[in-house]
What we know:
about 5% strand, mainly alpha, 7 helices, about 140 residues
Amino acid sequence: MKIDFxxxxxxxxxxxxxxxxxxxxxxxELPSSTPTKIPALKTDAQLVDDFYRRLVQSNFxxxxxxxGRVSKEEYAQSNKELAAANDRPYDAAVVDRHWNVLDPTHxxxxxxDEMRAGLERLLPVSVGHLSDAEAARLRNLKPST
Length: 145
């Protein structure tokens, strides 16, 4: 076996006096110099809108007959399944109280716009930051049993 300058064994054992191959010799493609586009930051209103949109979508998973409306029965059944999946007891009184906020006209079903309006009344949210004292208070809360 002939060992010469280009042999891998020889290159490990002997000093090389030649230059390392350049990027152009190896024909590497360099990334383009154009910067990647960073998505624009969302405003507080957009963040809140996204939150309610996702909440409406998750509540509309209860629309089992796919008529574009969630009935009280569908809503209650969805909450029963959610409670069972989370190993929590189902509380019909809480579901009735929430449904009365979601459907204040007592039509028996709500569309997506009515669901969103009800969720905004039931769960008002805003974007902000906790004060240090409030964050400390929340960290020290004991889980309910």
